[in-house]
Amino acid sequence: MKTVTGYEPRFDFDVRRGKVGEDYVGTILEKIASDSIEVKTDYGANRTGNLYVEFEQETQAGNWVPSGIATSEAEYWAFAFADGVIFVTLERLRQICRDVYLEDRERNVGYRPRNENSNATRGIKLPVARLATEMKTFA
Question: Which structural domain, as residue segments, surrounds residue 100?
Fold first, then answer.
């Protein structure tokens, strides 16, 4: 009988491999409980296909100061959608956003004007599909 490459018929080996994933998810849940994760809900992402990842905020005096991803101390960021959540380390998210920024600053930087609830902000327009693709290589 020919064995398929990558197939592992031993139950004990498969259980150990599954435990790695379970432990990783458990770590993320612990981070949520300890406030080491920043959760973002972008209600426009389904319509635009982009997440808005803030990196600067305008002060009342009109100066731009680092904020959002530039100042976050969370270990993980999570983006919540109607049908799921994407978890990513802050370090990896910063690298992906930096790459998107450098590819086309004019097109990939967004602006949200000041309103009654918040100051004006600048952020990366990060395609959800790009984040998902990049996360396939996440180790």
Answer: 36-135
Tens-digit pLDDT profile for residues 66-106: 999 999 999 989 898 877 788 899 999 999 999 999 999 88
pTM of the model: 0.75
- CA-based nearest residue to 124, from 68, 85, 78: 68
Give the total number of structural domains in the chain: 1
Q: What are the pLDDT digits (tens) for 29-65?
A: 776 777 788 989 888 888 899 999 999 999 989 999 9
Diameter over CA atoms, the chain: 75
Which residues face 123 on adjacent strands? 54, 110
Asked, for residue 30, whether it belongs to a domain, the answer is no
- Do the domain assignments include residue 131? yes
Bin 125: left if φ > 0, else alpha if -120 < ψ < 50, else beta: beta
Q: Which two tokens stand for residue 104?
A: 């086309």
